[in-house]
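Honest question from a wet-lab person: if I give you the sequences of every part of a complex, can you actually get the arrangement of the whole thing, not just the pieces? Trying it with mine:
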Amino acid sequence: MARVGRVQRGGWGSIRFLAGLFLVGLAILESAAAARAAEIAMVSGSVGSDLKTLRHFLAEFQQKTGDHVSVVTMPSSSTSQFAQYRLWLAARDPDIDVYQTDIVWAPQLASNFIDLKPYVKGRLGDTFPTILASQTVNGKLVALPMFADAPALYYRKDLLEKYHKPVPQTWEEMGATAKVVMDGERAAGNRRLWGFVFQGAAYEGLTCNALEWMRAEGAGNIVEKDGRISVYNDRTVKVLDMVRGWIGTISPEGVLSYQEEESRGVWQTGNAVFMRNWPYAYPLGNSADSPIKGKFDIAPLPAGAEGGIHAGTLGGWSLAVSRYSRNKAVAVKLVKFLSSKAVQKERAIVSARLPTLKSLYGDPEIAAKQPIIGRMKIALDNAVARPSAVTGTDYNEVSADFWTAVHNTLAGDGSAKDNLELLEAKLQRLKGVGW
Amino acid sequence: MRADGVAGRMSVLLRGRRVTVLLFLTPMLVTLAAIAGWPLLRTIWYGFTDASLSDLDAARFIGFRNYLDTLTLRSGRTVHTGLLADPAWWHAVWNTLRFAAISVSLETIFGTIIALVLNQRFPGRGLVRAAVLIPWAVPTIVSAKMWAWMMNDQFGILNDMLMRLGLLSHPVAWTASPDTAFLAVLIVDVWKSTPFMALLILAGLQMLPRDVYEAARVDGVSPLRTFFDITLPLIRPALLVAVIFRALDALRIFDLIYVLTPNNARTETMSVFAQQNLFSFDKFAYGSAASTLLFLVVALITILFVTLGQLDPERGQ
Amino acid sequence: MRMRTLKAAGFAVLVAAIITESVFPFYYAILTAFKSGNTIFHVDYWPTSFSLSNYVSVLTQGVFARNVLNSLFVACVTVAISLIFGTTAAYALARFRFGGRKLLLFAILSVSMFPQVAVLAGLFEVVRALGLYNSLWSLVLSYLIFTLPFTVWVLAAFLRDMPRELEEAAIMDGASPLRILVQIFLPLTAPAMVTTGLLAFIAAWNEFLFALTFTSNDTQRTVPVAIALLSGASEFEVPWGNIMAASVIVTVPLVVLVLIFQRRIVSGLTAGAIKG
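Yes, you can. This is the full assembly:
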């Protein structure tokens, strides 16, 4: 019995040795692989075609570096995307490494993101200065711009031709032209036509619209770069009074509840002479079943009567790296990749997203396949940034107080003077000793 | 050290008593201090700062400004801001008090009726008691969803029923329409909480001596008078306890309203107001101040009830 | 005689009304859950189909099964900790006389009166400091806020009424307080512990606000939040069939549990309220 056991033990012994060797080898290979390939998570909030494009780029990234990026889905809750980001970061969640942020978000959450400046020194010269400045807080680059967005004035070229009107260069001219065309068309039987639709609901979009009117008239930037609160001045009063005059005359009363889609709805069914909106509406307006296909074009937003600038509010998306990430090196690699020249070019061609790098606007391939991109360059040159970088964590409240004041004025709830005066006091209180 | 007899043992025991008591109490006390005491103090603290979720560590002390603040405008006009000057807050307070008063009253009335029924002996009593427990057993969120489905304006059975009975001429959007949202919340809460009231009142009824009723029956007192003159005074302590518990719960209500009628100013209670400011709007400090006020209201009413009802934590009443 | 039959009939109607009112919403939810496809949008008062499609859909799409497990884990652990900490504390409070005991009892009870939102901000801070955000442990910790006081309260009430003689013999034998608790009182309080455990389980299972705030991934959510946030393919589509199926899945075991233990639950609720 013992002899059999000893023989067995001997046989087993060599098998065990080989097995052990195999396992050790496997472990070494595994850990080596693990050391090379990392797992990080990114949240973008994108849906539909944008998500498809993103996944395409992430697959490309994995091919090049071996690192796998998983896309975190936004939880199905009623809070906004920004509120969810804020909650994750406030909770110091380490499970998300990269955040895709709207242009005004990263500066508000600045303390939660790492400084990306040391990693992208070479690229900074090629980026539009306003875009770069919008993502810089106290010298720290909190997010890398990925693609930009700037609004334009959409106009019905067929109607302007009919009434022999040029493309308006000032807001006053736009108002006058809209009235002439609208009255003419309504008299001719088209009862549903309005002069001008924009985004007048009480939300961030109204802040953008109102900032454009203000900058066109030289009324300041609500809060200046040095932190000074400049919003209550004669020019702001004048321009808000002007827009108040549009409500019910060239713009429907309902415009005070329109966001981007509602205004596009009125425009695309052919019921508006002018619309202020982002570039996304351009290809949609030219789609096969659109009533206005081929009948419209875009122009820079009007300036002010005294030759102010053709200002459009800067929009767009950037990528930020969380301070609580456990793999910042790979996260930075991903961020640099997704905002690199090659990827921006491909994204421009595939989804008509405006690049943030000046050099790409001269690229012949982009010009050939997506001509609208070249047309938008002037809009980017003239883009103005909302004061999110200077107001930091208070920006949300600043914007909310601002759009409330504007909305109340446009709705006839208080005069422009009274609302702006109250706004100024609220902002002063919010600012305290310093933003 | 040796000691004989019970007394001797007792004294040994009693000497070690403080240590024992401390040891036994500590885990619970530490836990409660950590998850209730400390967080409450922090919430109160945040109410005095300008904290924002975007950067909680950078919160600055600003005194009572979240509660009440005066702004002087350029033209000399003064304006009040802050919680105590916020119409939305007072609206929430009013909604909460109105809701608590109406729901507790309805639940008490219905609960008493059900308790009286269950107090009778009849065949199938066990079945009825089981059926009555069901609304209480269903999780609040589930009841909200069940009723939301029944109250659906297009496919809901409630509209269908009322229209067939001729009480409605067209479907009503119970949970969305500002006029009926409050009613919708009341209906669901009364449905859900009446069992609790019924059980507590039933317990009170079952402790009553039978001979009083015998005497009343013999004297030919009508059932209605029996109830109001005999039963009601005798079950007052049980009733009071039930009402207090339910009232405190009603003042704090959140779940039902968040799920059934979200973002509706007509049903926003203090809890909903606070939670929205804390996490949805970026008004963390403001929300903390609102939470503190809610806590004070509940604490005040608790103390009021306790002193008025003369409840003793040691003796049953 | 007619009066009596009238009264009896009236009583029967009342009883029928009570039963219908209590059970109908739940019955209707079950009815809807068994309908498939577009038949949901047709109002029926009686069951018309017994399709399991909604159940299959809610269990296979998304992570609902995982949510149920999450709720189970949290509720069980919360009950375990509540019973352990609660029993020892209740014993100390009930069987020993010391200064400030009444005040302490009252303070403990008052903790369960805290509005949840009043501790939410501070608790969020604690959760993130401990690195527990999005972890089920954050919920276990938070739920003790209401389960612990209730457990202490009810068990203390129960233990207080026990006669002194039970302890005296053990004291004679020189037993330590821990031995007295475990060997003498624990077996006697077992029924009360089952009751409070059950009530604590139900409370933890149903909790919504903390679960909504401290978890963000769909895989980490518990059942109430999962049901509240069940959404369809687009943001405008409400998957009623799935919601009803999920509700039934979650509620039927709970209802069965409550019905089986109804006597205990009723006595527990009333003991907590009246005896205390």
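Two things worth pointing out. The mean pLDDT of chain B is 87. Chain B touches chain A at residues 50, 52-58, 60, 62, 65, 69, 71-75, 77, 79, 81, 262-263, 279-283 (CB under 8 Å).
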